[in-house]
Amino acid sequence: MGKRQRPEELEVGSGLVLVDKPAGWTSHDVVGKVRKLAGTRKVGHAGTLDPMATGVLVVGINKATRLLTHIVGVDKTYTATIRLGQATTTDDAEGEALETRYANEVSAERVEEAVSRLTGELMQVPSTVSAIKVDGRRAYDRARAGESVELEARSVTVHRFAVQEIRHIDGGRFMDLDVEVRVSSGTYVRALARDLGEMLDVGGHLTALRRTAVGPYTEGQCLSIEQLSEDFGYIGLAEAAGQIFPRRTLGAEEAEHLGHGRRITASGSEELTAAYGPDGELVALLRDIPAKPGASSSPDAAAAATTIPHAMHAKPELVFAP
């Protein structure tokens, strides 16, 4: 995973910690533990996992917390178990049963047809116990206080929804589906379980959930809380940014201009780009935008703005150095 030191010997740097979140822990619990191990308050995570869920939780320390906003929006992959035959108040096994309907007549063909309808671009209503804020309060706080919560549907994308195994439980009363899904940011797997159950007229909820990948980061790269306590490992800031964004290597003069927040010549990319100095250190994240004559720029970029029609500049969105 890159830099690894025992916690008591750690000289706090900046980077990403890939944690295999255990069941029963909140994402905030993990952040609190990493704060203690790293000896810094500047810790955050990229995408909440419910307490019952396990798997990849990307945690940023120090300057790398500024990368988290861009990591939150990447696709995520999960393995999950959906139980057909029962709906719950939370759309997962931690809620109270709302209604039980026999699932013994649901065929594999009907399951596959319903799964196909839940694949692609969808309008999804999040679970009422989601972290979405309603009038300044989290939906789950309102729901647990007994308030009626109505959330608006929003656009999400389910890139992959594959049934791996079907099992009949309790003499066929319930049907358990082991599935793998790859989804866009903001997609609730609990809501997929709920909607699949409703499509099949038997109800459904989630009984297990594991996040196996967040963008380029996979469960095989993660360390458990116990491993981190013994041997704290993290991906350094420069390496982490290079795994997420296209790379651009700068000359010393360009790096100096970026370090002072000035625009430089365009990167030629439609994506956010990680810019590195001659020493290999991350200087800034850049985005190409239309050039603006008179903007604070390097000499080359300033000249391009006045001499080249429709010229572009690379503008620093985040500056990490000096």
DSSP helical segment count: 9
User: Could you list the spans in which at least 5 consecutive residues all have pLDDT below 50?
Assistant: 5-10
Please count the beta strands (DSSP E, at least 2 residues each): 20
Using only CA atoms, what is the Rg? 23 Å
Give the oligomeric state.
single chain
Mean pLDDT: 89
Q: Structural class given helices, strands, pairing?
A: alpha+beta
Q: What's the helical proportion of residues?
A: 10-25%
Percentage beta strand: 35-45%
Order of helices and strands: EEHEEHEEEHEEEHEEHEEHEHEHEEEHE
In this structure, how is the largest beta sheet organized? 11 strands, mixed
Termini separation: 25 Å
Report what the structure shows:
With 322 residues, the protein is α+β, with helices and mostly antiparallel strands. The chain is 23% helix and 36% strand. The protein is built from nine helices and 20 strands. The chain has helices at residues 27-38, 68-72, 108-117, 139-144, 189-199, 225-230, 237-244, 252-259, 299-307, and strands at residues 3-5, 15-21, 43-45, 54-61, 76-84, 86-88, 97-100, 120-124, 133-134, 137-138, 154-169, 174-183, 204-214, 217-218, 232-236, 247-249, 264-265, 273-276, 282-290, 312-319. Strands 1, 2, 3, 4, 5, 8, 11, 12, 13, 14 and 15 form an eleven-stranded mixed beta sheet that branches. A five-stranded mixed beta sheet has the order 16-18-19-20-17, sandwiched between helices. A two-stranded antiparallel sheet has the order 6-7. A hairpin with a 4-residue loop joins strand 11 (154-169) and strand 12. The longest helix has 12 residues, at 27-38. The radius of gyration is 23 Å and the shape is elongated. Mean pLDDT is 89; it is low at 5-10.
